[in-house]
Design a protein that fits this description.
Layout (H helix, E strand, L loop, with lengths): L1 H4 L3 H23 L14 E6 L5 H17 L2 E6 L4 H13 L4 E4 L8 H9 L4 E4 L13 E4 L2 H15 L7 E7 L5 H14 L5 E8 L4 H14 L5 E4 L2 H13 L9 E6 L2 H8 L5 E4 L5 H12 L7 E3 L4 E2 L1 H7 L6
Parallel strand pairs: 1-2, 1-3, 3-4, 4-5, 5-11, 6-7, 6-8, 8-9, 9-10
Antiparallel strand pairs: 10-12
Helix pairs in contact: 3-11, 6-7, 8-9, 10-12
The protein binds alpha-L-arabinofuranose (AHR).
The site of alpha-L-arabinofuranose has 13 residues, from helix 3 and strand 9.
């Protein structure tokens, strides 16, 4: 008390200003829709990120991109590997809510079943960014934006290439399909896009379609079954490079020449896939870029600052033939 009474006028003014700023700051955090938890306002951003797993070369490149971009952007990253399990992702998101991170970002392993946990994040005023894969929630206010590829388009590009290649085919062209993880957006959408495109030619028929879980081991195992059950396979459409690479082993072991006896189309364009394409073992790849880190960190900063961001940001992608893969390989980053 005595100290208070002996304060000089400038000190009193400074104290009043400090308390006004403090109250204002707390109020601003409390009202903020985007401030994230509202515990600190030191300008530093903490992001909680839940990754699908480490199932493919694509995923490894995506994880590296996110970690490197966070460091470069000065964002503190809390990273969790869900090992391909939705329950692990939900647990990680709940932890991030408890820790009051500023932003939560995640790549949903499957499309459905996210409404409850996303609502919890929204109630805690922690903005959520979806990256790589989206969710099927009807309430679009549960997340700020979705940054990632158009998976339907990727499937379509794969199918359209095949339609062009087989336009002179006079008889049935038997296709087998290695699907990604069941319920995952890229598996659902690539299947859909491919089916829509090949509908242009009734000779093109998918005779078997099964999940290989986006892994090399899965691709190899399911391709072995396809080869045993189907004496005539003309085309393999694999939802990612890794499953295609696993299938190469099964095809070779069955005494067939990949890329010649069986036309192989995949998606991703990671280095190993591009090498297989350059070597003529694959025939076509539709690209899916994993380098989402820098854009994600940029979005996190904007969202934290309360800036409007587009609801959907689509990744720019291309396609590769053997000649194009040979040209692109030396400069391929992942
Ligand atoms: O969600 C992107 C997909 O997930 C990639 O195509 C695949 O390789 C990965 O596992």
């Amino acid at each position: 008390m005595r100290k208070m009474r002996t304060q000089s006028a400038p000190w009193r003014a400074a104290a009043v200003l400090a308390s006004v700023l403090l109250v204002g700051g707390v109020a601003a955090c409390g009202n903020s829709d985007t401030g994230g938890g509202g515990t600190k306002d030191d300008g530093k951003i903490t992001m909680g990120f839940s990754q699908v797993g480490a199932e493919s070369g694509w995923r490894t490149a995506n994880t590296i991109s996110i970690k490197e971009a966070a460091t470069a952007a000065g964002i503190e990253l809390k990273f969790d590997d869900a090992q391909q399990k939705q329950e692990n992702q939900i647990k990680a998101i709940r932890n991030y809510i408890q820790q009051k991170v500023d932003v939560i970002a995640f790549s949903p392993v499957v499309e459905s079943g996210w409404d409850t946990v996303l609502k919890e994040a929204k109630d805690a005023k922690i903005p959520v960014i979806l990256t790589d894969r989206s969710v099927d929630s009807a309430d679009k206010t549960l997340y700020k934006t979705f940054l990632g590829s158009d998976f339907v388009k990727e499937g379509k590009l794969a199918g359209e290439w095949l339609v062009e290649q087989k336009k002179t085919a006079s008889g049935p062209v038997n296709i087998v399909e290695l699907q990604g993880s069941t319920g995952a957006a890229p598996a659902n959408d690539r299947k859909k896009g491919f089916a829509e495109a090949i509908a242009a030619n009734p000779n093109l028929k998918v005779i078997a379609s099964q999940t290989g879980d986006f892994t090399r081991a899965g691709g190899k195992q399911v391709m072995e079954q396809f080869l045993k059950a189907n004496p005539k396979i003309d085309v393999l459409f694999a939802h990612n490079d890794d499953m295609g690479l696993g299938a190469l082993e099964a095809i070779t072991a069955a005494g067939k020449v990949p890329g010649k006896d069986i036309t192989i189309i995949t998606i991703d364009a990671v280095k190993d896939g591009m090498q297989a394409l350059a070597d003529g073992k694959f025939n076509f790849i539709a690209e899916c870029s994993p380098l989402l880190g820098p854009q994600l960190m940029d979005l996190a900063k904007k969202v934290k600052a309360g800036e409007e961001v587009p609801a959907r940001i689509e990744t720019e992608e291309t396609t590769f033939t053997t000649a194009q893969a040979k040209e692109a390989l030396p400069n391929r980053k992942y």
